[in-house]
């Protein structure tokens, strides 16, 4: 066997991911040594509770509650504790001690990424985080490395498995949000407190990380517009299906062309959106993730796979550990990234996309013309309209064509598809529609993404 130099690896955390990382490091040590060009010695595992039951059997003498001492003298520190503190302090401590850091901690990077990367820059250390967005899917390296010579135009990502699982079951079974969420919790797909997932916080953290890499710009979390999926109901899913769409929680990172002699800008947003059923993202089922990248020269690329799971995520973590080890042996800088483009992130009002507006209106002559007039005044151009009588008077037909020819005195549902419009114009127009006297209820306004 080759006589490799030994690198000391400290692992912080032995939960769902950390325990699998430790297990793989111990079981595949010889193979990993051949790939890394160094023997990876697991020096210890820092946890909170020494006696907690682990997902896999690991040698008890590796465990410690003293992360700080474990870090000192380590070449590579793997942070898999999660959360901001003490992860932030320990990561900064590892960097200051001369170690490279591997982390899967999206919360830490989305909120304190600049601090961590600057600290690493100052001492020539590297921070690897392939597992921090979309779990096992290789997406950080492609954005940071493979596409470094291209210009990314847009990323559309399904980056939260829990919400994709919920929306997919709602779509395939016609089930309600609350029922599917309860089942997802029972099956372990959703946390007891599902807020981070269903309100889009987790996806927003990943969007900030992906946009920062794609656009070579530091994107703070508060620049990410965020909406969750709690308002999506069975009727919206059915209406989307009827129109040839599926609803997905998307993280959209977009480069916007310069306007009026200004500079290019970016938009980063997370919301439930309508995706054409023919789009590759529509076929992402269950708890899977996918990231669809459009680049100027490369064209369309899609990265697909498990966005979470202990052993799946451990694969991405270990890939980073091997990279870090190689760099330690060879010296020099790592894959590197730049934030020098420094593009401004615009508020949601500047975004231009297509929309589907669903309204309940009085079912009487002239209403459609009034609605069309308000949309036109608001610079929102109609692409399609479908009208369905929902509370028919005795002589009303159901459904009726979108000609405004119904004479019933009940209510009708209007589903309006728009051409591209500016979000600001659209939201002001929807407010005017709501106040117009002919609209009984704005049922939903959904963006259409994907082409
Ligand atoms: P987890 O199951 O909650 O495990 C966390 C581990 O960190 C536990 O072993 C815990 O120790 C330890 N820990 C927490 N606070 C600590 C402290 N103050 N001092 C020492 N140890 C401490 O978390 P996970 O699911 O493995 O996730 C780890 C990281 O990976 C997170 O950043 C997460 O966002 C990211 N990630 C997870 C997945 C996934 O599928 N789970 C996917 C992608 C990314 P005890 O066991 O003693 O309590």
What would you note in describing this structure?
There is one protein chain. The chain has 14 helices and 17 strands. The N and C termini lie far apart (54 Å). The strands form two sheets. Strands 7, 8, 9, 10, 11, 12, 13, 14, 15, 16 and 17 form an eleven-stranded mixed β-sheet that branches. Strand 4 (76-79), helix 4 and strand 5 (100-103) form a beta-alpha-beta unit. Helix 2 (29-36) packs across helix 12 (310-330), helix 7 crosses helix 8 and helix 13 (367-377) runs antiparallel to helix 14 (423-434). Residues 393-406 have low confidence and may be disordered. The chain is an alpha/beta fold and 451 residues long. It is elongated and about 85 Å long. It folds into three domains: 7-136 and 311-330, 3-Layer(aba) Sandwich (Rossmann fold); 140-307, Dihydrodipicolinate Reductase, domain 2; 351-449, ACT domain (Alpha-Beta Plaits, 2-Layer Sandwich). NADP nicotinamide-adenine-dinucleotide phosphate binds next to helix 12.
* CATH third-level topology of the largest domain: Dihydrodipicolinate Reductase, domain 2
Per CATH, the class of the largest domain reads: Alpha Beta
Average residue pLDDT: 93
Structural class determined from secondary elements: alpha/beta
The geometry reads as elongated
Radius of gyration: 25 Å
CATH superfamily of the largest domain: Dihydrodipicolinate Reductase, domain 2
Domains (count): 3
Straight-line distance between termini: 54 Å
pLDDT < 50 runs, ≥5 residues: 393-406
Beta-strand share of residues = 25-35%
Bound molecules: NADP nicotinamide-adenine-dinucleotide phosphate
What is the number of E strands?
A: 17
- Helix segment count? 14
Largest sheet features: 11 strands, mixed
């Amino acid at each position: 066997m080759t006589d490799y130099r030994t690198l000391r690896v400290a692992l912080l955390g032995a939960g769902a991911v950390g325990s699998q990382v430790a297990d793989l490091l111990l079981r595949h040590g010889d193979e990993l040594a051949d790939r890394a060009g160094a023997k990876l010695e697991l020096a210890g595992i820092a946890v909170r509770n020494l006696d907690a039951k682990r997902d896999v059997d690991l040698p008890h003498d590796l465990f410690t509650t003293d992360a700080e001492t474990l870090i000192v003298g380590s070449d590579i520190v793997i942070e898999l504790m999660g959360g901001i503190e003490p992860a932030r302090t320990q990561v900064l401590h590892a960097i200051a001690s001369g170690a490279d850091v591997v982390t899967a901690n999206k919360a830490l990077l989305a909120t304190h990424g600049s601090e961590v990367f600057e600290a690493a820059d100052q001492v020539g250390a590297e921070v690897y985080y392939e597992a921090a967005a979309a779990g096992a899917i290789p997406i950080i390296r492609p954005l940071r490395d493979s596409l470094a010579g291209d210009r990314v135009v847009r990323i559309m990502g399904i980056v939260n498995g829990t919400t994709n699982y919920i929306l997919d079951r709602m779509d395939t079974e016609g089930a309600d949000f609350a029922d599917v969420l309860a089942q997802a919790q029972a099956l372990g797909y959703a946390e007891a407190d599902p807020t981070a997932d269903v309100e889009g916080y987790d996806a927003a953290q990943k969007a900030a990380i992906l946009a920062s890499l794609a656009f070579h710009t530091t994107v703070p979390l508060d620049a990410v517009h965020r909406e969750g999926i709690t308002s999506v109901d069975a009727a919206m899913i059915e209406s989307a299906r009827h129109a040839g769409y599926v609803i997905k929680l998307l993280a959209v990172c977009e480069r916007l062309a310069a306007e009026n002699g200004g500079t290019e800008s970016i938009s980063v947003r997370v919301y439930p959106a309508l995706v054409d059923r023919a789009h590759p993202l529509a076929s992402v089922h269950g708890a899977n993730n996918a990231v669809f990248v459009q680049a100027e020269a490369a064209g369309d690329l899609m990265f697909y796979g498990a966005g979470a799971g202990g052993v799946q995520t451990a694969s991405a973590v270990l890939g980073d550990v091997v990279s870090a080890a190689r760099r330690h042996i060879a010296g020099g800088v790592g894959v590197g990234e730049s934030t020098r483009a420094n593009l401004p992130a615009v508020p949601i009002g500047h975004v231009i996309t297509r929309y589907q507006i669903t309204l309940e209106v009085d079912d009487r002559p002239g209403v459609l013309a009034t609605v069309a007039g308000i949309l036109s005044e608001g610079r929102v151009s109609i692409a399609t309209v479908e009208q369905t009588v929902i509370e028919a008077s005795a002589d009303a037909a159901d459904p009726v064509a979108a000609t405004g020819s119904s004479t019933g005195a009940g209510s009708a549902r209007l589903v309006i598809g728009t051409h591209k419009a500016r979000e600001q114009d659209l939201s002001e127009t929807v407010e005017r529609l709501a106040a117009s006297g002919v609209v009984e209820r704005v049922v939903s306004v959904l963006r259409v993404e994907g082409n």
